[in-house]
Amino acid sequence: MAKKPTARSEYVMFDVIYEDGSQRSNRKVDAGLLGGLDGDEPAREAIMDQDRAIAEKSGLPPLAIKTIRRSGK
């Protein structure tokens, strides 16, 4: 029996530079959050949410984000 097609989520990849100078590349953000009048600003909040979840699991405090930009630009 054939499987039903699943809904595909589209993602936009971002490079994140933190206040301490470290960088994380290719952070995924759901494309549905982006666009409109806010542009890429909702990506910052989504990445901060991801960082909080990672920090909670690791026991380390989340780093402050300095800048974000789309990967490949």
What best-fitting shape do the alpha-carbon axes yield?
globular
Estimate what percentage of residues fall within beta strands: 25-35%
Supply the number of helical segments: 1
What order do the helices and strands follow? EEHE
Distance between the termini: 43 Å
Secondary structural class: alpha+beta
What value does the Rg take, in angstroms?
A: 15 Å
Mean pLDDT: 89
* Biggest sheet layout: 3 strands, antiparallel
Number of strands: 3
Order the strands across the largest sheet as they lie in space.
2-1-3
**What is the percent of helical residues?**
10-25%
Low-confidence stretches: none
Q: How would you portray this structure in words?
A:
- The radius of gyration is 15 Å and the shape is globular.
- It is α+β, with helices and mostly antiparallel strands.
- The mean pLDDT is 89.
- It is 25% helix and 30% strand.
Keywords:
alpha+beta, 1 helix, 3 strands
Write a compact overview of the structure shown.
With 73 residues, the protein is an alpha+beta fold. The chain has one helix at 41-58, and strands at residues 11-18, 23-30, 65-70.
